């Protein structure tokens, strides 16, 4: 990132140059001197800033989908938020997570290779407690999962990967599938130790407990679609996106089958409480609308038509005589 000088720093620099404390020629030589930057081949840079931004955008949606899904399944509020997207060697990721944790290994066809969603034990055990009828507490000194607990986690995370599918829909249609659930990171080797991965860290809060969910995506897995992660591709895709005819037809069908109340208003009148209590059969209530004027028909809360009362096939009916535009009768009641 380029450093920007403040106004005070600029003034001090100009004063030093004018007084001779600094030599402009020496500054030029330093600027033109060849700069050498150290490069660690064990931490190969495979993802550009453009790619990192796109991955961050995708998985912010993923975090929102997961928040909705887990909150519904656990019947309690759960918040998931992306806090960092970085690239690092796979071996460094494995060494950074707890020795006992929850590792969901999954595939996402047509992408080749495996990915991993690591869930901190605090979060995983709180989930289990909620799903088994508890209040979401985290038991202490638990090192292994029972068969029942493993099945409970497999079931909830199998459906959780539907959120991954939705988040990636704008880039590629994938079919995620949970292939394994492990608790020991040393037993998981989805890529070589020096392979670069994209690590999406998501802070997770459930009740009084908080922890991290880390999504590990090896570079080799998404390398075939890296070109789709550029801002240019996203811009072009958004411009060319067309609505699915099937979705349009389904939406139109739902709209056509929607029911709305239709009310024909004869008019209004004001009565005192005494007059209302003393109404008897044969009394006439004077309305504020002339009999010569048609009745106003309201669709929902908006006045849309003027009509005349009548009878059709032995039933009361209204004949539409005029359609009100928005200026004449479109005000909400």
From TrEMBL:
GO terms for molecular function: cytoskeletal motor activity. CDD domains: FliM (cd17908). GO terms for biological process: bacterial-type flagellum-dependent swarming motility; positive chemotaxis. Keywords: Bacterial flagellum, Cell membrane, Cell projection, Chemotaxis, Cilium, Flagellar rotation, Flagellum, Membrane. It comes from the Bacteria. Residues 254-324 form the Flagellar motor switch protein FliN-like C-terminal domain. Gene3D superfamilies: CheC-like, SpoA-like. SUPFAM superfamilies: CheC-like, Surface presentation of antigens (SPOA). PANTHER family: FLAGELLAR MOTOR SWITCH PROTEIN FLIM, YOP PROTEINS TRANSLOCATION PROTEIN Q. This is Flagellar motor switch protein FliM. It comes from Chengkuizengella marina.
């Amino acid at each position: 990132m380029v450093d920007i000088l403040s106004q005070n720093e600029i003034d001090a620099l100009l004063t030093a140059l004018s007084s001779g404390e600094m030599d402009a020629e020496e500054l030029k030589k330093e600027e033109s001197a060849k700069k050498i930057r150290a490069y660690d081949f064990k931490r190969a840079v495979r993802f550009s800033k453009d790619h990192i931004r796109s991955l961050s955008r995708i998985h912010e949606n993923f975090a929102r989908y997961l928040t909705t899904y887990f909150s519904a399944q656990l019947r309690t509020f759960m918040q998931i938020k992306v806090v960092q997207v970085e690239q690092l060697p796979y071996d460094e990721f494995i060494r950074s997570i707890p020795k006992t944790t929850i590792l969901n290994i999954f595939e996402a066809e047509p992408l080749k290779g495996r990915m991993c969603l690591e869930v901190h034990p605090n979060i995983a055990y709180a989930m289990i407690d909620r799903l088994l009828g508890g209040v979401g507490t985290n038991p202490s000194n638990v090192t292994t999962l029972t068969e029942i607990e493993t099945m409970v986690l497999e079931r909830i995370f199998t459906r959780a990967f539907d959120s991954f599918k939705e988040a990636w829909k704008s880039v590629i249609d994938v079919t995620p599938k949970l292939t394994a659930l492990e608790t020991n990171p040393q037993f998981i080797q989805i890529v070589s130790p020096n392979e670069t991965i994209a690590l999406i860290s998501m802070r997770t809060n459930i009740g009084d407990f908080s922890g991290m969910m880390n999504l590990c995506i090896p570079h080799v897995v998404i390398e075939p679609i890296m070109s789709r992660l550029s801002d240019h591709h996203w811009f072009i895709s958004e411009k060319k996106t067309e609505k699915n005819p099937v979705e349009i037809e389904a939406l139109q069908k739902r709209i056509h089958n929607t029911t709305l109340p239709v009310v024909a208003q004869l008019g209004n009148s004001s009565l005192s409480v005494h007059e209302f209590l003393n109404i008897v059969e044969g009394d006439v209530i004077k309305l504020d609308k002339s009999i010569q004027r048609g009745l106003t028909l309201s669709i929902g809360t908006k006045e849309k038509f003027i009509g005349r009362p009548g009878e059709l096939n032995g039933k009361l009916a209204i004949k539409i005589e005029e359609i009100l535009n928005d200026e004449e009768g479109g005000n909400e009641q």
